[in-house]
Amino acid sequence: MERILELKGVKKRYGNVEVLKGINLTLKRGDFVAILGPSGSGKSTLLHIAGGLDTPTEGGVYLFGKRIDNLREAERDRYRKGKVAFIFQFHYLLEDFTVFENLTLFGELLGIPNTKERAEEILKFLKLEHRKDYKPYLLSGGERQRVSIGRALISGAPLILADEPTGNLDSKQSEEIFEYFKEINRRGTTFLVVTHNQKLLKYFNRVYHIRDGVLTD
Ligand SMILES: Nc1ncnc2c1ncn2[C@@H]1O[C@H](COP(=O)(O)OP(=O)(O)OP(=O)(O)O)[C@@H](O)[C@H]1O
Ligand SMILES: [Mg+2]
User: Do residues 58 and 10 lie in contact, with contact meaning Cβ atoms separated by under 8 Å?
Assistant: First the structure.
């Protein structure tokens, strides 16, 4: 059993508010895990800490067997790059570049081979071929979301952390995206996904709820 991610007693305080009160979570290779919880319950905070974008106030974060919460920021960034891909709740696209470039630049940054071919394939799957040369401001919310999914996919990272990845999509599009996630998952990519969509729960092999700073299943 390969441990992809482990959170041990993770707490996070902002000022005197404790958002996470002792989170324990283990993801093994091939897991496809959901986190549900009300708005403000700490789901995004948890994903950011899990992926090394933020650090806990207390507790340990282990990514592919290495403790990352006590690393310096630059070292942590170097370690997580190419290992973890994020699909954020709010999509950060490069506004001065086209859809195609948003994928290929990211792939090249990570040193991914055949980025152009991969980008073509991913855009085709995401039904964005006709938007390839558009800059992000010309896209709809759902199209922007699909580009940010494409950017996570091009990295080929073994762990994908996704924060409401289909929040702006209709149910048919959401199911299509999840079918694709499931296919990538079958090939070995591990997923931790925040979602509100009850209809998508059938895809997951474990579902956790976060409430009052703790996880329950
Ligand atoms: N940098 C920060 N400084 C202070 N408080 C913060 C910070 N980031 C998050 N919080 C607070 O922590 C709580 C949890 O935020 P978080 O974004 O993790 O919630 P969430 O479960 O993702 O909510 P949503 O479903 O609305 O996205 C919120 O009350 C939020 O205001
Ligand atoms: Mg959130």
Answer: yes
Ligand 1 binding pocket includes 213 (Cβ within 6 Å): no
**Nearest C-alpha to atom 9 of ligand 1 is from which residue?**
45
| 138-150 core/surface letters (b: 16 or more CB in 10 A; e: else) | ebeeebbbbbbbb
Sign of CA dihedral 128, 134, 136, 141: negative
Cα separations (Å) of 161 from 80, 110, 166, 199? Answer: 12, 17, 13, 19
Ligand 1 atom with the smallest distance to the CA of 47 is: 18
Convert the pLDDT of each residue in 28-65 to its tens digit.
Answer: 999 999 999 999 999 999 999 999 999 999 999 999 99
Q: What is the rounded average pLDDT for all residues in the chain?
A: 93
CATH topology of domain 29-53+81-216: Rossmann fold (3.40.50)
Protein residues near ligand 2, an ion, with CB under 5 A: 44, 89
